[in-house]
Amino acid sequence: MTTARRRGIVAAVTMIVLLALGAGVALGVGDALGISAEKSAQMQPAAPVAAHAAAPVAPPEITLDAPSTVRIGVAADELHTAVADAPKREGAATVSVDAAPAGTDDAYVLEGDASALRVHAGSEAGAVRAIYDLAAQVRAAGPITGLIGAHAASRLPLRMTDLGAVGVKADPAEWASGTDYSHASKAFADVFLPRAPYIDKTALAAAYADFDTFLRHSLANGYNAIAFPGFAEFMTFDDVPNGPVYAPGDEHRSRAIAMREAFAPFWARAHELGVKVYLRTDMPALTGPLESFLTNRFGPLDTENPKLWDVYTAGLQELYRATPDLDGVLIRIGEAGTVYDVPGWDYYSALDVTTVKSVRAMLTAFTAQAEASHREVIFRTWSVGVGAVGDMHTNPASYAAVLNGIDSPALIVSTKYTLGDFYSWLPLNTTLEHGSQRRIIEFQSRREFENYGAFPNDLGTQYQWAMKQLLAANPKIEGVWTWTQDGGPWRAGPMTLYLKAGFWQLYELNSQLTASLARDPDTDVAAVTEAWAREWFSDDPKTVDAITQAMTRSRDAIEHGMYIAPFAKQHVAAIGLEPPPMMWIFEWDILTGDSAVLDVLYSIVRDSGTGGASGVEPAIADGRTAIADVEQMRALVTATPASTWRSPEMRTAFVSTLDYELDTLKLLDSYRAMILHQGQWHDTMSPAAYSAWETDRARFEQLASAHLTKYDGDVDHPALNLTAAQLGVQRADRDEAMAWIARGLLVLAVAWVVIGILASRTRLVARPGAAATRASWIASTRPWRARESTLGMLELDRWLLLTVPVALLVATRAVQTSFLSWTHLALIIGAWAIFAVVLRLFVWHRSPWPVIAAVGGVVILRCIVTLFALSFTGPGGYWFAFWTDPVLRTIYITVAFALFVWVFVAGGWALVAQIGARRATGAVLAAVGAGLFIPAVVIGAIGLETALTAWNDEMGLLPWGLSRILGITTYLGIPDATPWAAAGFGAVLLAVGVLLALPWRGRSARRVVM
């Protein structure tokens, strides 16, 4: 066998191996992306209906004869206030309440007639409930005699709320930018002082009054427990094993004492009103000294070690002794970190409870302590994809792995009713049907993902359906937790603060619905909506009818206007995560413009059509139906006379919010059409689709400008964050031009290769520049001939051999990024430049042209592959195929990877004839190592999150909001040390390469022929 033949076989085998490796990489990428979609089971609530409002009934002047207790006194205040707030009163009535012992059974019987009523209850809780029910009946303008009869005990005895907006200051300046995505409420911020005495007593007194108002309102709505934020802030940790945690004189200890003394009266007030208080915290909760204590004793937050949790339970036991009115703790492990931290406040949390063993160790410790102290532990299953317990919230098998066998009577497990976060279109959370533990269901009144409750959103029928299904399946469910205010960023949406600022009455409906359904799942939800309308807006029957009829359309408007239904109905998986059904509006008000979301969304919508037809146009029409719903809602409300409303301001607020919703949905409609037609063009290359996209883009830009002009800076009706969408439009605008540039570059690149092929076999080689193309072709495909192919070249040929690949590489990468990502260009070109410089140093005084020909030739081939992919519909089409077409993605990655690695193989092979196989291998390894090491160090110095954010902002591949809200590295689980690990690997390659490339003295160098 000739040497040439042997080399050809080796080259062919090498390329086959590289293609196989490329296929493996492609399959690995596809597996890592894990993009899939399957139809999800939808909830099946009854269609909403509006009750026909009867004429209002004026309440009588009520004289209450009841035992003199604190709880009954507060309930009596609510009844008397309700009567006083009524537009008029007719007649008089006495209400007598039998003396009753303390207890939790809140059943009662109401007897009598319009002039004299008597309450019989088996406990004070029942008597108090009867008085609150009478107050609610008065506020609903119904006859108090309508309550006569027996009232069974509440179906769910535990009805908990968050802390509303207690202690939160309504400062418009903090809401004006609309870009503060912090989840920290800053509750009691004006109460805390940085130095002793740590508490501002004037601010504390105001906060106490705020808290008392919230307690009274929550009791009137039917709630009897609250989740109070804080945990480590109140602990001295004096009694921990091998403690104390805080050194003598440490301000953390003195601050904890001051804080629990300040808030103990809050908890005592709740206790005397029959309201349970649970301290709400993320775990592990930390301070600087506490974290140092834990790491010194147990290693870097070893949360699987039961003794670590003994530190917390010892601190909690001490707190319970000091403040006996606390009823337990509420623990979350799935969200923590900087998004919840308050700058300058040394109390924070970490995402470190991520394994089954660590969760079980934590709960075992806390439940044992709770049993011993007669308290309770509420554990949230909200693990949101973090660690081995990441799907505990939605996967019954994972739930069982974590909690089976932990059957403490002190443990209550809290879970959202949706199979995910508080979005529409999600299935019922079936984990609530499983488990032997006590359970409570979480609901959200101010729906964070549906514009923070700024739009009408009557969830009554959905809540009722969900509650009935779950109660029928699991007798262990004993309560609800209603988020009246909390959830998501506090200051990125409208400045609505429960009971104190903005149009909070709009989502008060959902708080009242949840409590009513918790007491009686068969509650007439239409009647609750009617009562809400009467309480807050009007007692005029026609006006009430108009409001309730408008509310029956509110869910359809939300579900079809803010969601793209064909996508929302699917269970989508990607990158090991489960994207929510509203991905085009990303967390929480950012209209996204990234290709990953929009391309996958389009493909799902396209395939949702029936009879082989595309689902694009029906999806667009669906959004316009939602607009029609809001137009009908607005017509109903505006037709009501202002004189029939309780106040002109309330009518104005209602009409304004409908105007705001209408404007927003029209904007979303234009964007929906634009992104779907854009995907359709990338998919089909149809001129009609492109023309439709151009029309949609013009309409979107017009509506976006108007939306921003009208609502930007409006703290009551904030504009959507359109930055990401506008960046997406900017990239899309360039797609057609980039496709034409790519086609031109592709023709030139192919011509270079074709001329090289012809020049290697014909007399064309004598033409100017042909020798360069010949050398490029030969050296890239048969690198062992690189040296001979470059002999005798003219100066022009040499410069072409160098500049053409460099220019093509730069141009290809620039086109690939639509000339918008200089970060991407700098990284790629910088790495190649470092590789080239290091390789040139090893060649030194020898001719560099053989390796330039080999590397440059393969670079041209690699660029041809990319340019071909870009030539259809530009970079947008390139990424469309990557995200949506597994076959094309696999073929592309296979070929591109093989050619990428072939660059280094060819470069090394070209050097063999000059410096030998060992040294050639070393030179290439060293150059690759340097090309990896230096960029990795730069990225590490800048910060991986910062670098990825800059790159992604320019490329538009992943949601723009990731870095602003969650962090790309956190969301994708990329360790912060990744660039340093890459730098370390690059350094090893560099070192090994240098050792191999340097001459080894004392041994005769042998040239290896390949």
From TrEMBL:
Entry annotated with the keyword Nucleus: no
Taxonomic superkingdom: Bacteria
Positions of transmembrane segments: 740-759, 799-816, 822-842, 849-870, 890-912, 924-944, 980-1000
N-terminal signal peptide: none
Coiled-coil intervals: none
Keywords: Membrane, Transmembrane, Transmembrane helix
Name of the featured protein: Glycosyl hydrolase family 67 C-terminal domain-containing protein
